[in-house]
Design brief:
Order of helices and strands: EHEHHEHEHHEEEEHHHHHHHHH
Low-confidence stretches: none
CATH architecture of the largest domain: Up-down Bundle
Number of strands: 8
Strand order of the largest sheet: 1-8-5-4-2-3
CATH topology of the largest domain: Dehydroquinate synthase-like, alpha domain
Distance between the termini: 40 Å
Radius of gyration: 20 Å
Number of helices: 15
CATH superfamily of the largest domain: Dehydroquinate synthase-like - alpha domain
Shape: globular
């Protein structure tokens, strides 16, 4: 293994009914007044909101609310949250929702203690060096944000989709009750599955070196997600499958898959971010479109790893067969695999390529991903 530092201070409270104790968990850390951030009104209809409010009240924790976080979170909403936090003397942020809500809460937590515009922290002008304490109750496993220090958000005015990764953005306590995810729609189960797999596969396919232990860990996450997704499509309330799915999602991006690894990148994410920034495509859906074309293009750069993937994940012998099996599985679970399926036309390819190229320039990857290569890749996604 190559030398590495592993740091993850997030406390995870995993299991049934744990959301009822969120007030007690927050009280342990001296929280007095919280900004409660959530997405749709669904948490009120299903009773989760009332449970949270009751738990906060039992600990005499005051709260201010910010709802309406969308699935591709936007900086305007985070700015609204920062203003609320500053105006109301908030000392912690509680996210109740999936990765989009969590990422927004992370941006708010950092922006609440920053004097400038919070977009500075997301656009690489300044790295967050402090933040309010962050807590969360997860209702959708996909991004791994419940156990990592990263956040991604879109500036809807500039169509830039950026973010940050900072030790101050780790959640203090993450509550994961798999029962809260039993009503996730089939579409979002598919998108979540693809997102989790891509966190693993980007690293797995691009790394110049992966120790066997870490490769086995990554492959186990991938196989677990495929197996449990197939189970959950037929049995949405299967608690065992839902539990393993949720924990695999957290493991996929809590940096355990980085241990001893060298030379990894997140290419497919950089490409997909343009689709979701420009056309508000669900992130997982965009990744499902990107992946078949990108893996076929990238396969020659790491042929042995792709063969290992085909053999260990699908029991097949060739790299090409592994990619085909992955693509077929995306279709099987209802994920889109073409631009047409996400209502993006061929006439928009030049615009998308320009957008991706600007991101690659910022990542200093423009030599690898020239405009011509990006156009070629996008045509393969039609």
């Amino acid at each position: 293994m190559r030398d590495f530092t592993f740091y993850n201070p997030t406390r995870v409270e995993f299991g049934q009914g744990k959301e009822n104790k969120i007030g007690a968990y927050m009280a342990e850390y001296g929280v007095k007044k919280v900004l409660l951030v959530y997405g749709s009104e669904r948490i009120k209809k299903d009773g989760l909101y009332d449970k949270v409010i009751q738990s906060l009240g039992e600990q005499r924790i005051e709260y201010v609310t910010l709802g309406g976080i969308k699935s591709n979170p936007v900086i305007s909403k985070a700015r609204e949250g920062v203003a609320l936090a500053k105006e109301n003397g908030i000392d912690a942020v509680l996210a109740v929702g999936g990765g989009s809500v969590l990422d927004t809460a992370k941006v708010i937590a950092a922006g609440a203690v920053y004097d400038g515009d919070v977009w500075d922290l997301c656009s690489y002008r300044k790295m967050p060096d402090s933040a309010l304490k962050l807590f969360d109750i997860l209702t959708l496993s996909a991004t791994g944000s419940e156990m990592n220090s990263s956040a991604v958000i879109t500036n809807e005015e500039t169509t830039e989709k950026f973010g940050f990764s900072s030790p101050v953005a780790f959640p203090t306590v993450s509550v994961i009750n798999p029962e809260l995810q039993a009503t996730v729609s089939p579409n979002y189960l598919a998108y979540s599955s693809v997102d989790i797999l891509s966190h693993c596969m980007d690293l797995y396919f691009t790394a110049s070196y992966i120790p066997e232990f870490t490769a086995n860990h990554i492959e186990n996450i991938i196989k677990t997600v495929i197996r449990t997704t197939d189970t959950l499509r037929a049995q949405p309330e299967n608690y065992e499958a839902r539990s393993e799915f949720a924990w695999a999602a957290a493991q996929a991006l809590n940096r355990s898959t980085f241990a001893g690894v060298e030379g990894n990148r997140y290419d497919s994410h950089l490409i997909e971010h343009s689709l979701s920034a420009l056309y508000d495509v669900p992130h997982g859906a965009g990744l499902a479109v990107v992946y078949p074309a990108w893996t076929r293009w990238h396969m020659s750069a790491n042929q042995a790893r792709y063969k290992q993937f085909a053999r260990n994940i699908f029991g097949l012998e060739t790299a090409e067969a592994g990619i085909e099996a992955l693509t077929n599985w995306f279709t099987h679970i209802g994920a889109p695999i073409t631009l047409e399926q996400i209502q993006v036309g061929s006439e928009q390819i030049e615009e998308i390529a320009d957008h991706i190229y600007s991101t690659m320039e910022m990542a200093r990857m423009q030599t690898m991903y020239s405009k011509d290569i990006l156009v070629e890749l996008l045509h393969q996604m039609k």
